[in-house]
Amino acid sequence: MWATNFANGKWNYQSALSEVQAGRKAGHDSVLNYDHAPVNVNQTDLYAGGNGVWALRRTARRAKQISDIFGSVFGAGSVNTRVRVVICAQVANLWSYDVMFKFLNDVYGKPGNYIYAMACAPYFTMGKYNDHLTNGHWSTLSTSATKDQLLDAMALSAGSYSKQQKYTDFWSHGKNYGVRLAMYEGGHDTYGPFNIAAKAAATLDPKMKTLMKSYLSAFFAQGGTSFNYYTLGAKSYNSPYGSWAITNDFNNVNTPKAQAFREVRLGVGVTNVAASAGVSA
Protein backbone atom coordinates (compact mmCIF):
# COMPACT_ATOMS: atom_id res chain seq x y z
CA MET A 1 0.00 0.00 0.00
CA TRP A 2 2.95 2.35 0.45
CA ALA A 3 4.18 1.82 -3.14
CA THR A 4 2.54 4.60 -5.12
CA ASN A 5 3.98 3.30 -8.40
CA PHE A 6 1.31 0.59 -8.11
CA ALA A 7 -2.38 1.30 -8.69
CA ASN A 8 -3.40 0.17 -5.20
CA GLY A 9 -0.97 2.55 -3.50
CA LYS A 10 -2.13 5.48 -5.60
CA TRP A 11 -5.77 4.55 -4.93
CA ASN A 12 -5.11 4.53 -1.18
CA TYR A 13 -3.56 8.00 -1.36
CA GLN A 14 -6.54 9.28 -3.36
CA SER A 15 -9.07 7.70 -0.99
CA ALA A 16 -7.37 9.16 2.07
CA LEU A 17 -7.17 12.65 0.59
CA SER A 18 -10.80 12.58 -0.56
CA GLU A 19 -12.01 11.44 2.85
CA VAL A 20 -10.07 14.12 4.71
CA GLN A 21 -11.22 16.85 2.32
CA ALA A 22 -14.85 15.73 2.61
CA GLY A 23 -14.64 15.77 6.39
CA ARG A 24 -13.24 19.28 6.49
CA LYS A 25 -15.90 20.53 4.06
CA ALA A 26 -18.61 18.98 6.23
CA GLY A 27 -17.22 20.63 9.35
CA HIS A 28 -16.10 17.46 11.16
CA ASP A 29 -12.63 16.13 10.45
CA SER A 30 -12.16 12.53 9.40
CA VAL A 31 -10.53 10.31 11.99
CA LEU A 32 -7.61 10.15 9.55
CA ASN A 33 -7.03 13.79 10.48
CA TYR A 34 -7.82 13.35 14.16
CA ASP A 35 -5.07 15.82 15.06
CA HIS A 36 -6.78 18.49 12.91
CA ALA A 37 -3.88 19.32 10.60
CA PRO A 38 -4.44 21.98 7.92
CA VAL A 39 -6.44 20.73 4.93
CA ASN A 40 -6.46 22.20 1.44
CA VAL A 41 -9.91 21.20 0.24
CA ASN A 42 -8.92 22.05 -3.33
CA GLN A 43 -5.74 19.95 -3.35
CA THR A 44 -5.38 17.62 -6.31
CA ASP A 45 -1.71 16.64 -5.91
CA LEU A 46 -1.88 13.28 -4.17
CA TYR A 47 1.57 13.61 -2.64
CA ALA A 48 1.42 17.14 -1.26
CA GLY A 49 0.75 18.29 2.26
CA GLY A 50 -0.11 15.70 4.89
CA ASN A 51 -1.53 13.15 2.50
CA GLY A 52 1.28 10.67 3.10
CA VAL A 53 0.38 10.57 6.78
CA TRP A 54 -3.34 10.27 6.02
CA ALA A 55 -2.70 7.41 3.58
CA LEU A 56 -0.67 5.51 6.18
CA ARG A 57 -3.39 6.03 8.77
CA ARG A 58 -5.97 4.73 6.32
CA THR A 59 -3.92 1.56 5.84
CA ALA A 60 -3.61 1.12 9.60
CA ARG A 61 -7.33 1.69 10.14
CA ARG A 62 -8.20 -0.94 7.56
CA ALA A 63 -5.90 -3.43 9.26
CA LYS A 64 -7.77 -2.78 12.52
CA GLN A 65 -11.11 -3.23 10.75
CA ILE A 66 -9.97 -6.52 9.21
CA SER A 67 -8.89 -7.76 12.64
CA ASP A 68 -12.28 -6.83 14.07
CA ILE A 69 -14.15 -8.55 11.23
CA PHE A 70 -12.33 -11.84 11.70
CA GLY A 71 -12.67 -11.56 15.47
CA SER A 72 -16.43 -11.09 15.16
CA VAL A 73 -16.71 -14.31 13.14
CA PHE A 74 -14.23 -16.58 14.88
CA GLY A 75 -14.58 -15.05 18.35
CA ALA A 76 -12.51 -12.52 20.27
CA GLY A 77 -10.04 -15.18 21.39
CA SER A 78 -9.09 -15.84 17.78
CA VAL A 79 -7.37 -12.48 17.28
CA ASN A 80 -3.56 -12.82 17.40
CA THR A 81 -3.94 -16.60 17.71
CA ARG A 82 -5.97 -18.20 14.94
CA VAL A 83 -6.11 -14.88 13.06
CA ARG A 84 -2.93 -12.84 12.83
CA VAL A 85 -3.15 -9.44 11.15
CA VAL A 86 0.19 -7.94 10.11
CA ILE A 87 0.93 -4.31 9.27
CA CYS A 88 3.56 -3.88 6.57
CA ALA A 89 5.54 -0.89 5.34
CA GLN A 90 8.80 0.00 3.62
CA VAL A 91 12.03 -0.76 5.46
CA ALA A 92 13.61 2.42 4.04
CA ASN A 93 10.88 4.52 5.71
CA LEU A 94 10.57 3.19 9.25
CA TRP A 95 8.80 6.40 10.27
CA SER A 96 5.76 4.86 8.54
CA TYR A 97 5.34 2.47 11.46
CA ASP A 98 5.61 5.36 13.93
CA VAL A 99 2.77 7.12 12.11
CA MET A 100 0.53 4.06 11.90
CA PHE A 101 1.01 2.73 15.42
CA LYS A 102 0.66 6.12 17.08
CA PHE A 103 -2.58 6.67 15.18
CA LEU A 104 -3.95 3.26 16.18
CA ASN A 105 -2.88 3.70 19.78
CA ASP A 106 -4.39 7.19 20.07
CA VAL A 107 -7.70 6.31 18.39
CA TYR A 108 -8.34 2.59 19.06
CA GLY A 109 -6.11 1.63 21.96
CA LYS A 110 -2.97 -0.49 22.16
CA PRO A 111 -2.24 -1.99 18.71
CA GLY A 112 -0.93 -5.27 20.14
CA ASN A 113 -4.48 -6.13 21.21
CA TYR A 114 -5.61 -6.48 17.59
CA ILE A 115 -2.46 -6.39 15.39
CA TYR A 116 -0.18 -9.42 15.62
CA ALA A 117 3.01 -8.07 14.07
CA MET A 118 4.78 -5.40 12.07
CA ALA A 119 6.66 -6.51 8.97
CA CYS A 120 9.03 -5.11 6.38
CA ALA A 121 11.26 -6.50 3.64
CA PRO A 122 15.00 -6.26 4.26
CA TYR A 123 17.39 -7.98 1.86
CA PHE A 124 21.10 -8.55 1.88
CA THR A 125 22.74 -7.17 -1.23
CA MET A 126 26.05 -6.69 -3.04
CA GLY A 127 26.74 -3.43 -1.24
CA LYS A 128 28.97 -1.15 -3.27
CA TYR A 129 28.60 -3.45 -6.28
CA ASN A 130 24.80 -3.12 -6.43
CA ASP A 131 23.36 -2.31 -9.85
CA HIS A 132 21.45 0.98 -9.76
CA LEU A 133 18.60 2.04 -12.01
CA THR A 134 18.15 5.81 -12.20
CA ASN A 135 15.81 7.49 -14.67
CA GLY A 136 15.83 4.42 -16.88
CA HIS A 137 19.62 4.05 -16.92
CA TRP A 138 21.66 1.33 -15.18
CA SER A 139 25.00 1.97 -13.47
CA THR A 140 27.40 0.07 -11.21
CA LEU A 141 30.77 0.57 -9.54
CA SER A 142 32.34 -2.14 -11.69
CA THR A 143 31.26 -4.19 -14.68
CA SER A 144 34.09 -6.64 -14.03
CA ALA A 145 33.52 -7.49 -10.37
CA THR A 146 34.73 -10.96 -9.44
CA LYS A 147 32.94 -13.67 -7.53
CA ASP A 148 35.13 -13.07 -4.48
CA GLN A 149 34.58 -9.31 -4.57
CA LEU A 150 30.84 -9.86 -4.64
CA LEU A 151 31.02 -12.37 -1.79
CA ASP A 152 33.02 -9.95 0.35
CA ALA A 153 30.44 -7.22 -0.28
CA MET A 154 27.56 -9.62 0.41
CA ALA A 155 29.24 -10.66 3.66
CA LEU A 156 29.21 -7.07 4.89
CA SER A 157 25.56 -6.67 3.95
CA ALA A 158 24.37 -9.99 5.42
CA GLY A 159 26.47 -9.57 8.55
CA SER A 160 25.22 -6.06 9.24
CA TYR A 161 21.87 -7.45 10.38
CA SER A 162 23.57 -9.00 13.39
CA LYS A 163 26.46 -6.60 13.88
CA GLN A 164 24.27 -3.50 13.73
CA GLN A 165 21.22 -5.17 15.31
CA LYS A 166 19.11 -4.06 12.38
CA TYR A 167 16.14 -6.29 13.18
CA THR A 168 16.10 -4.90 16.71
CA ASP A 169 16.02 -1.42 15.21
CA PHE A 170 13.11 -2.33 12.94
CA TRP A 171 11.17 -3.75 15.87
CA SER A 172 11.79 -0.68 18.03
CA HIS A 173 9.19 1.12 15.89
CA GLY A 174 6.44 -1.23 17.08
CA LYS A 175 7.59 -3.26 20.08
CA ASN A 176 6.36 -0.78 22.68
CA TYR A 177 2.90 -1.01 21.11
CA GLY A 178 2.78 -4.74 21.83
CA VAL A 179 3.24 -6.04 18.29
CA ARG A 180 5.67 -8.76 17.22
CA LEU A 181 8.31 -8.64 14.48
CA ALA A 182 7.85 -10.41 11.14
CA MET A 183 9.20 -10.13 7.61
CA TYR A 184 6.71 -10.18 4.75
CA GLU A 185 9.55 -10.92 2.34
CA GLY A 186 13.31 -11.03 2.32
CA GLY A 187 16.31 -12.80 0.89
CA HIS A 188 19.31 -12.33 -1.38
CA ASP A 189 19.23 -9.45 -3.89
CA THR A 190 21.48 -9.47 -6.99
CA TYR A 191 19.05 -7.76 -9.35
CA GLY A 192 20.53 -5.92 -12.34
CA PRO A 193 22.23 -6.43 -15.70
CA PHE A 194 25.92 -6.35 -14.71
CA ASN A 195 28.30 -9.10 -13.56
CA ILE A 196 25.71 -11.81 -14.10
CA ALA A 197 28.18 -14.71 -14.31
CA ALA A 198 29.98 -13.55 -11.15
CA LYS A 199 26.67 -13.16 -9.31
CA ALA A 200 25.65 -16.70 -10.25
CA ALA A 201 29.04 -18.09 -9.18
CA ALA A 202 28.87 -16.24 -5.85
CA THR A 203 25.35 -17.49 -5.20
CA LEU A 204 26.46 -21.09 -5.74
CA ASP A 205 29.70 -20.74 -3.77
CA PRO A 206 29.80 -22.69 -0.46
CA LYS A 207 30.45 -19.41 1.38
CA MET A 208 26.90 -18.37 0.55
CA LYS A 209 25.63 -20.82 3.15
CA THR A 210 27.39 -18.90 5.94
CA LEU A 211 26.11 -15.55 4.69
CA MET A 212 22.57 -16.80 4.39
CA LYS A 213 22.62 -18.35 7.86
CA SER A 214 23.96 -15.18 9.45
CA TYR A 215 21.26 -13.11 7.78
CA LEU A 216 18.35 -15.41 8.64
CA SER A 217 19.41 -16.51 12.09
CA ALA A 218 20.01 -12.91 13.21
CA PHE A 219 16.31 -12.28 12.63
CA PHE A 220 15.27 -14.99 15.08
CA ALA A 221 18.06 -14.14 17.55
CA GLN A 222 16.68 -10.59 17.72
CA GLY A 223 13.13 -11.70 18.47
CA GLY A 224 11.65 -12.24 15.02
CA THR A 225 8.71 -14.59 14.52
CA SER A 226 7.78 -15.38 10.90
CA PHE A 227 10.13 -14.78 7.96
CA ASN A 228 8.77 -15.20 4.41
CA TYR A 229 11.71 -16.01 2.16
CA TYR A 230 11.77 -14.79 -1.44
CA THR A 231 11.93 -17.16 -3.39
CA LEU A 232 11.84 -20.85 -2.44
CA GLY A 233 11.38 -22.05 -6.00
CA ALA A 234 13.92 -22.78 -8.75
CA LYS A 235 14.99 -20.25 -11.36
CA SER A 236 18.06 -19.65 -13.51
CA TYR A 237 20.75 -17.44 -11.99
CA ASN A 238 22.03 -16.46 -15.44
CA SER A 239 19.61 -13.59 -15.68
CA PRO A 240 19.54 -9.81 -15.13
CA TYR A 241 16.49 -10.41 -12.93
CA GLY A 242 18.54 -11.61 -10.00
CA SER A 243 19.39 -14.87 -8.27
CA TRP A 244 16.55 -14.62 -5.77
CA ALA A 245 15.55 -18.28 -5.90
CA ILE A 246 16.86 -20.71 -3.33
CA THR A 247 18.11 -22.94 -6.14
CA ASN A 248 18.80 -22.61 -9.86
CA ASP A 249 17.84 -26.20 -10.62
CA PHE A 250 14.59 -27.89 -9.63
CA ASN A 251 16.50 -31.16 -9.22
CA ASN A 252 19.10 -29.62 -6.89
CA VAL A 253 17.71 -28.98 -3.44
CA ASN A 254 21.14 -28.87 -1.84
CA THR A 255 22.50 -25.49 -2.99
CA PRO A 256 24.29 -23.40 -0.34
CA LYS A 257 21.21 -21.23 0.14
CA ALA A 258 18.94 -24.27 0.43
CA GLN A 259 21.26 -25.83 3.02
CA ALA A 260 21.27 -22.62 5.06
CA PHE A 261 17.50 -22.28 4.87
CA ARG A 262 16.95 -25.83 6.15
CA GLU A 263 19.46 -25.51 8.96
CA VAL A 264 18.00 -22.23 10.22
CA ARG A 265 14.50 -23.66 10.02
CA LEU A 266 15.64 -26.66 12.08
CA GLY A 267 17.67 -24.49 14.46
CA VAL A 268 20.98 -26.14 13.54
CA GLY A 269 23.84 -23.90 14.71
CA VAL A 270 21.63 -20.83 14.67
CA THR A 271 22.90 -19.30 17.91
CA ASN A 272 26.56 -19.64 16.95
CA VAL A 273 26.03 -18.33 13.45
CA ALA A 274 24.02 -15.36 14.68
CA ALA A 275 26.75 -14.48 17.16
CA SER A 276 29.44 -14.52 14.48
CA ALA A 277 27.49 -12.70 11.78
CA GLY A 278 29.46 -9.98 10.11
CA VAL A 279 32.75 -11.85 9.86
CA SER A 280 34.52 -11.81 6.53
CA ALA A 281 33.50 -14.38 3.98
Summarize this, please?
It contains nine helices and seven strands.
Description:
The protein has 281 residues and is of the alpha/beta class. The chain has 2 domains: 7-115, no CATH class; 123-166 and 184-276, no CATH class. Helices cover 44% and strands 11% of the residues. It is built from 9 helices and 7 strands. It has helices at 7-26, 51-74, 95-108, 147-163, 166-171, 196-204, 207-221, 256-266, 270-276; strands at 86-88, 117-120, 123-124, 132-134, 137-139, 180-188, 224-229. Helix 1 (7-26) packs across helix 2, helix 2 (51-74) crosses helix 3 and helix 4 crosses helix 6. It is globular and about 65 Å long. The two termini are 37 Å apart. Residues 272-281 have low confidence and may be disordered.
What structural class do helix, strand and pairing data support?
A: alpha/beta
The H/E string reads: HHEHEEEEHHEHHEHH
DSSP, total strands? 7
Instruction: Report helical residue fraction.
Output: 40-55%
The major beta sheet can be summarized as: 5 strands, parallel
Count of helices? 9
Indicate the low-confidence ranges by residue numbers.
272-281
Rg, Å, rounded: 21 Å
Distance between the termini: 37 Å
Write down the overall mean pLDDT. 93
Portion of residues in beta strands equals 5-15%
Q: What is the domain tally?
A: 2
**What overall form do the CA principal axes indicate?**
globular
